[in-house]
Structures
1.
Amino acid sequence: MSFADFGVRSFVPDSQVGEFASHLRQGKVMASRCRDCGHVAFPPRSGCTNCGSAAFEWIAIDEVGRLVTYTRVEYGPAGFEAELPYVLAIARFPLGVTVFGQLSRELAQTQPHVGMPVKLAARLLANNRASYHFVQP
Amino acid sequence: MQKEVAIIAAGQTPFTRRSSSSLGELCFGAWRDALRGSVVIGKSVDALVVCSAPEYDRQRSPAGVVAESLGLSGRPVFNVESLCSSGSSGLRTAYSLIRGGLHEVVAVVGFQKMSELSSAEVAERMGRSGDVMWESPFGLTQPAGFALFACAHMEAYGTSEADLAEVRVKSSLYAEQNEHAAYRKRFAAEDILASAPVVSPLKMLDCCANADGAAALIVASRAAAERLTTDPVWILGLGAASDSATLSNRDCFTSLTSARVAAEQAYRMAGVGPGDINVAEVHDCFTITEIIATEDLGFAPPGSGVRLLREGQTRLGGRIPVNVDGGLLGKGHPVGATGLSQLRTIVRQLRGECGATQVQGARIGLVHNLGGPGIYAFVTILGSDRP
């Protein structure tokens, strides 16, 4: 699976961290970790912004995080008509990363609130595409 | 206080939902309004900075077309872009061209003709306003980005939807009196609270709307300013900063870090503090943004922007009148023109030209201009010589 298949709609076909999409297919949401200084990055980066190294490895974000903020979107951009309404959210994880994404349909239907515990899960979409969303731990 | 570079002329076209002018004609309108018949100032311009967000333009590389429309072909021309703060990027560019000694008098012209795009094209661009690699695939839009800040601010400080509505109530009061504003209807809090939900907690009337328009400034060295005008408005302080385009690399959602940094720089350069500002224009692309801006600028402590607003301190007659021209909410938001329109309002305030919305005795004014949710932030402090 290539990075062009990431998300409901993608705009960037190629990336040195394109393998992120293949990990999604295997059910894993990954961050990158610099092999030289250990700096963890999300979104994943092939080049370390801390030490300049280009050597990185993958590390799964499989812990429970907390919701920092969210918004229910009633008007979406082109390509998201079938998703509406959807909830965009930001959560922080003990690994030291902050992640942006959508809440799962089930979670969006509950009353989301700041501080709510969430986990990341891969989300398989139509047309062989894949994404991730926040789910109940 | 340093007085090395001045704004010697400022103008704009009316902002409208749909203009019947081409982009060159719009820019000419703003240029003509700035010059007020002074051929001498127009002829003294030796460089042009054009500000626009090109994703809205049909014209590729519009700077050359704009120069030609103003009769400035032959001079060096630069195009600058930083989304909605392109105008402030243009002013900073002009300032450094003058301070660097390359030019003496620089025109800064910003425009956007947003109505040239179809609604489908607008919806397509809406989907590319965040980081296209990591955040657009989830359906992030510009309003949703700011809504995430609104939710966090409400959670941290108890800010309510009724508080947000109060920002629009104030802006509509002043937009009604601004003949250059596109949206001049007066609103009550109930109207705003009853408007259609867009991105919770923001509703239709919490959001500024697209507009067509242009604005222009003429910026000059001290020597040129003293030669060309008796009423210069000095650039006392400039601040500029940026922050990550991906929201997942932000530490804070109750404040815009870049705006706080830009404000500190501008205050330090000008040698003044928040209490010295007599009138301010802040980037109210959404109601929440005005509340956060008053906190980031130090007009109120973090979490107290609502109190400042509710006490009427940001209205005419208050401690620090904010957006008494109607702001982006009232004027409409032609992206490349917005920052220059904010600067024009402060120039007019400092020259005592604002009639019914004049802040009496205003001598120091401030402009806060954002690009995206604080991806870019500019704070500019202006001062007049008037007694």
2.
Amino acid sequence: MSDTQLPQGDPKGQDSGVHPAHSGPTGAPTPMADRPDTASTDDQSSAHQVAEAAAQSSTEPKPVENEYDGADRETQPAPSHDVPESFNVTVIVRRYDPEVDDEPRWVDYDVQMYPTERILDALHRIKWEQDPSLAFRRSCAHGICGSDAMRINGKNRLACKALVKDFDISKPIYVEAIKGLPLEKDLIVNMEPFFDSYREIQPFLQAASKPEKERHQTIAQRERFDDTTKCILCAACTTSCPVFWTDGQYFGPAAIVNAHRFIFDSRDEASQVRLDILNDKEGVWRCRTTFNCTDACPRGIQVTKAIAEVKQALISGVKL
Amino acid sequence: MSETSSSLTLPDPAPQKTSFSGTLYRGNEGMWSWVLHRITGVAIYFFLLVHVLDTALIRVSPEAYNAVMATYKNPIMGLGETVLVGAVVLHALNGLRVIMVDVWPWATRNQRPLFWIVMGLVVVLMAYFVPNHLINVFSPMEGGH
């Protein structure tokens, strides 16, 4: 695809190690290129990956050799030399079919996995090879779209960013839906209450003045809210919040993060409106600083810090 | 998870909340400090309730007050006092930490070490208090107070 436009290339086959375009030199055909999910995400993800790599290099997997390409997406074994060792992983998924089950139930699956693979690959393998009825959301599969937030071994993460080798594979890996939103099926929850809170804080630029060309902003002004621009609305933070679990009316970390993104934007003129909304009984004051949201954020946003800044803005005004 | 009642601010498209809780969420220091804070807070609240009542007795009749106080003077209540002091110390110190985390950006960034400092202080203070207190509790009473 368009990788050649990036001068430094992107040596990391980040996240999945799947990168059909990179297999060029080795001459390996791109076995999965016709698979819709791979093909459609490739363009976006390659562009994102450069930025991603810088932001997340500490947590990302090491660069994967070209020879590995496609190996983790199975069916077609990689070139015979240097085939990574596969191992058996037990994945226990909390299944729930509202038409059949009264209560969710845990179901075990044994999957052959490679160290370069992610929990999302395990779910794919279960769905494609063992039980097609397994329901879960995923779109880009590269940590950008935020569709596949789920609770893996008791913590909210993106399945597409959770590498199998980072887990203790001698024990089963538990996968279940995120908590606090209505469970619809298997790993799918109703995200509407989450997005309602998001909409409520008016997550769009509001400025009355019409600039001649563009709205100017200094580097420092942009830096002020840079952290909270990274949100991908995956709901990992909001559904890790003990306050949100017990009180579904709480705006939740994600909505506050996105309010923060505009409250501290020098171009925006509706900061006070958003602060008034968040001054509500169910607003920022419900935050109990458990830091679950900060720990859960797959983008590394300092969520609790952002909430604390909004609290301080409510007390002493917005300091841009 | 209990049902949430719909409010004016948030239309809830699915009021019948079928979010069964599943495994225990594996939070870190922040979450456990909150859990401890909540448990000690509720425990102290119930103690205060009783404490206000028994202290108010002195206005009713000093004899009744003395009778109630006498029932407290046994080893079981002595151990209970140890737990109470531990809860109060933890709640107080962690409360200071929570205030700092809320208003002081440095503390927000360093909430984790702050939690362990709080736990360390609790251990030190209790290491001083518990032996002294238990000696008082289990030594024969010399004439009361």
3.
Amino acid sequence: MAERKLVVIPAYNERDSVVAVVESVRSAMPENWDIVVIDDGSDDGTGAKAARAGAHIVRTPFNLGIGGAVQTGFIYARDRGYHQMVQIDGDGQHEPSAVESLQKAMSESGADMICGSRFLSHDYTYPAPISRRTGIHIFAFLLSTFLRQRITDPTSGFRLYNRRAIELFASDYPHDYPEVEVVMMLHQHRLKMKEVPVKMNLREEGVSSISTSKSAYYMVKVLLALFVGLLRTRDRQPAEGA
Amino acid sequence: MGHRIQLVAVFGALLLLVLVIELVRRRRLNERYALLWMLSAFVILGLSIWQGLLEQLAKLIGIAYPPNALFLAAIFFILLLLLNMSVALSRLQGETRILAQRLAILESDHEQTSENEEDW
């Protein structure tokens, strides 16, 4: 039987970009990928637009935040027996055509999560404000130190997961600003991750889930989660894949 | 400790105790949360009735004026109750999230099934 694969697109009030994202995913990726859009309690008709574009929609009854939305995707993937799941943000930041290189890295390295990194290629250009890049590099430095593995872009949401990672995150996923903590969680459960270089676009439409006023909270919350994470014990055995 | 403040403290603690028991009786307050409230009320009540105990406690932690030890104990329990509340809130938030996720997936299944039936 062919491996079942799922694209999860979390979207909160992305009316202006979600259709383009769904269409680009559809045209860039092979037929055997199913597409589900998690409409995270949008009030601008994001879900209806994505449905008309031909995606399957899961609509949360109220806004859960990015963590809760993505976890909904993991539960969906787990319950329907998908073997691989890729997360592509609903704002058009990620290039669906790059999923192929994520998949290649997964089959070559056997890692449980492959992460698209903005900072791995030599010619990277990511014209984000310096404050945001500094934050990312601080998290990258801390994680690299804790995990003794080079991590360059722990805030990237462009990720491919295998069945083991799907099962882990369906049962437990950080609530808000989850990306950085997820790297730590993988390490604690003795799952492996690997980064591959990808290009990312700056947001075309809509507002990032991280506004300036929230960045301070973001930094402090993630730092707390990382240091508390250090106090948790690691699994002795790698998590069992069912 | 002056008689008046002792009376106020005893009366206040008794009132709290009665209120908590009444709320539990009417099923407006869960036993799970009532226990910590009752413990707080009993300790405050005990300390306000037995002056000797309060004075000893004050001496032990270096408080010159014993009624202040009563306030300290009350503040300690208030903090404990607030923390207890935050824990309960976190648990509820987690449970609500799980409900929302399950509902979202079930609803999308349901829509799909009814669409298929229409096609048929």
